[in-house]
């Protein structure tokens, strides 16, 4: 196995699963489909991919091989997967707070101003 494949093996093996999770993130919830949402999702997925690759390389290079030669791959895969899930979870909640809720308020006509009670 070449050095490049060894270094990126965790990403290669997990790519189908990452693609499924990324597709689910992109598709759901179905509304709103605005340019802001599209841009946010694109940036979030690109950042998640970059963070996963960086963490995979860090895990591969910092693994202690005294416990066995496979430990590099095991650590790289574990760290890469954890970072991917963490970044996707953070993006999901940030999208809800920064994109979806403001859109729902705008559609509902809520300006965020306190409501006056009349008696």
Outline the fold blueprint.
Blueprint: H1 3-7, H2 9-27, H3 35-62, H4 71-108
Helix pairs in contact: 2-3, 2-4, 3-4
> SSE order, as H and E?
HHHH
Radius of gyration from the CA trace?
A: 20 Å
The overall pLDDT, averaged over residues, is: 87
Strand content: under 5%
Low-pLDDT segments, ≥5 res: none
- Total DSSP helices: 4
Transmembrane segments: 6-28, 35-54, 74-94
Keywords: Membrane, Transmembrane, Transmembrane helix
Describe this structure in words.
With 119 residues, the chain is mainly alpha-helical. It has one domain. The chain has four helices and no strands. Helix 2 runs antiparallel to helix 3, helix 2 packs parallel to helix 4 and helix 3 packs antiparallel against helix 4. The protein is elongated and about 60 Å long. Keywords: Membrane, Transmembrane, Transmembrane helix.
Features:
mainly alpha, 119 residues
Please give a quick description of this structure:
The chain is an all-alpha fold.
